Amino acid sequence: MIPTAEEILTKSDGALRVASVNVNGIRAAYKRNMADWIAARDLDVLCLQEVRAPDAILRELIGDGWHILHAEAQDKGRAGVAVLSRAEPIATRNHIGDEYFETTGRWVEADFELSDGKVLTIVSAYVHSGEVDTPKQVDKFRFLDRMIEHLPALKAEKDHVLVVGDLNVGHKTLDIKNWKGNVKRSGFLPEERAYFDRFFGEEIGYKDVARELAGEVDGPFTWWSWRGQAFVNDTGWRIDYHMATPELASLATKSVVDRASSYDVRFSDHAPLVVDYQF
Hints:
Blueprint: H1 5-9, E1 15-22, H2 26-31, H3 34-39, E2 45-49, H4 55-62, E3 67-71, E4 81-85, E5 91-93, E6 107-113, E7 119-126, H5 135-157, E8 160-166, H6 190-199, E9 207-208, H7 209-214, E10 240-244, H8 246-249, E11 252-257, E12 273-278
Parallel strand pairs: 1-2, 7-8
Antiparallel strand pairs: 1-12, 2-4, 3-4, 5-6, 6-7, 8-10, 9-10, 11-12
Helix pairs in contact: 5-6
């Protein structure tokens, strides 16, 4: 179900609104009026993936009123992640801790001090799309392996941790419209989904915020191909996440896939995932 404008726009007093979206190129998204979407959403934190632009371009497009943490990819026109925030972070880190990925623009962390003195760490992450039996898939598994090591360390060190972004894996059969035809395709491989069993299981202990709020329903999907009738028919994948430590997840009051009203007004092939946390 497409949320109403009222459901999207209404924010409770004291809520922290965090949105994440793969923009599929920030310049292209702004040409499709992404700025109007930002202006209407009363966001406190906006995390971006696939920025695919130099830092100067990102800052020029976003404009004043934001603190911008941006990990640019060394390869021009590829990847790039960012955390945009109204409040200034007290500390930042721009990679996941493996030198192999240091310049790939796939992971940034920002620490924010809350009113009670606790620290909230927000991560914008972009996991590789992968391709079976290619070096791209090898890199994807290496990145997921690093997440297996890094997520528990963050959880142990920080008061609250929120990892958001395009993680390029549908965890369960409810997360892909036509899952039976994709079990041998990168993004829904059993080996990939097993990582998410660990992320959201007892071993690592993060919570899948959108799934917990939505319940056992199809999707809500966050990505649809530009091709054919995928968007119109809601033939999508849920590959964008808010992964939160348990106490933080318990504060989530609303999760909305901010799906465009029609194909022609989309600014990306992903829809923003917007979650309110009530502190």
